[in-house]
Amino acid sequence: MNSRPLHLSVVIPARDRLDVLRRVLDGLCKQELAPEHFEVIVVDDGSSDGTMDHLREQAGKTPFTLISLQGGGEGAAAARNRALAASRGEIILFLDADTIPSPSLLRRHLELHSRARGAECHLGRIEMSAELMGPKQARWHELRLAAGDARTGEIDFRRYRTANSSMPRSALLEIHGFEERLPAAEDLELAYRLARRGMRFFYHSDTLAVHHHPLRLEEYLRKGALYGEAVARWHALQPEMGTELARRFGLYDAGLTPAERRRYRLKTLLVNGASVRPLTVLAGCSRRIGCAASQRLLRAIYGYHLRRSFYGSRLQPGV
Question: Are residues 55 and 142 in the same domain?
């Protein structure tokens, strides 16, 4: 056990989510952890909805120390790095501007780190907001780990995501934080570098936050394209990750097993440039009538947009 209580820095990148950010800050005001044991750092990453004005208005009104920083619209990775540089806590807890903490969340994360043996990352459960549950939500399957797929205990680094995760500040500083050249997937890339340095990852189903982010079908598919671009850049930066990235994101690589290559060919036969448009219309109709089977189709279409963007964004190694 540590001789003195650990201090926590809660890091939140925010861009045009003031409606939910208010609820996140309200949740932080209701924490079981005494406010002198944590600070909250919100980075406004180029919002146009009055986020920074609200943060300045809240300065001095919250029971905890609230620090607001102005970002330049460079993305979540740069915003988190900006907050990391300003943080003072031994432990960094990442939340998103649409991830509402349960009252025990901060206390649980500090308790976990007070018992840690070596460098550890702790991930809590994320539940989809009850207002957004159901087959009409395009993104429910993205949170399968968060919603309880994973058993409590040690997990593979490949299952890491930033929201509701905590780790030592020193470990983040040693690897210079997030890779800002990635427009997405920066969380998994960070976990890869941390794991190479010996960090262990643990999942806890009793450490809860609620995710409230309605996502239209068009936004969801654009996200697939964004991930394709990010993975292409990641592959260029770390070519040795080629086979690993192919497995994780449904791409082709010569290092895949014969069975994996067959699955890849089947996906490209089913969803391709000729079929994607009518399949997208079908998926949209299925969602409107509440057909849960549409989720499989949506995942397949998402994968098509990711692959298309990846192969159209291939960069030279080291870019």
Answer: yes
pLDDT along the chain (319 residues), means of 10: 74 96 98 98 96 95 97 95 98 98 98 94 87 52 45 90 98 98 96 97 96 83 95 95 95 96 94 93 73 77 95 61
- The backbone torsions φ and ψ at residue 41, rounded to the nearest 5 degrees and listed phi first, read -120, 115
pTM more than 0.85: yes
Dist. CA 59–CA 67, nearest whole Å? 8
Q: Are residues 243 and 140 in the same domain?
A: no
Same domain for 52 and 105, yes or no, is yes
Q: Measuring CA to CA, which residue among 126, 65, 66 is closest to residue 99?
A: 126
Picking from 252, 228, 231, the residue whose alpha carbon sits closest to that of residue 301 is: 228
Domain shared by 299 and 192, yes or no? no
Residue 2 lies in a domain: no
Round to whole Å and give the CA distance between 255 and 247.
10
Show the tokens assigned to 58: 């809240």
**Contact assessment for residue 25 and residue 57, using Cβ atoms and an 8 Å cutoff:** no
At 236 the pLDDT is 94
Tokens of 292: 């849960």
Give the domain range for residue 46.
Answer: 8-211
Q: Find out whether 138 and 287 touch, Cβ atoms under 8 Å.
A: yes
CATH number of the domain to which 87 belongs: 3.90.550.10
pLDDT score, position 132: 58
Task: Please give the single-letter amino acid code of residue 208.
Answer: L
The domain tally of the chain equals 2
Query: Residue 119 class from Cβ within 10 Å (0-12 exposed, 13-18 middle, 19+ buried)?
Result: middle
| 256 φψ region: left (φ > 0), alpha (ψ -120 to 50), beta (else) | beta
CB of 105 within 8 A of CB of 28? Answer: no
